[in-house]
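Progress narrative, Year 2. Work on DUF1059 domain-containing protein from Paenibacillus prosopidis advanced from sequence curation to structure prediction during this period.
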Amino acid sequence: MTTLSCNCGFSVTDENKYKVEAAMWHHAIHDHADMLKSMTVEMLENWLKHKDEQLKAGA
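Result:
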């Protein structure tokens, strides 16, 4: 099982890591759009690296 969590408390768990990542992106886009718009490319890159590490750990 793979789990990703957002700092706001949202969490998603599934056996399919792609479904987990898609659900997290859906959450981020719908619930944190203003934050995403304010992030630089470097900030997004670091966020993605952190989430990728979480996905690998759950594999």
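The chain has one domain: 2-58. The radius of gyration is 11 Å.
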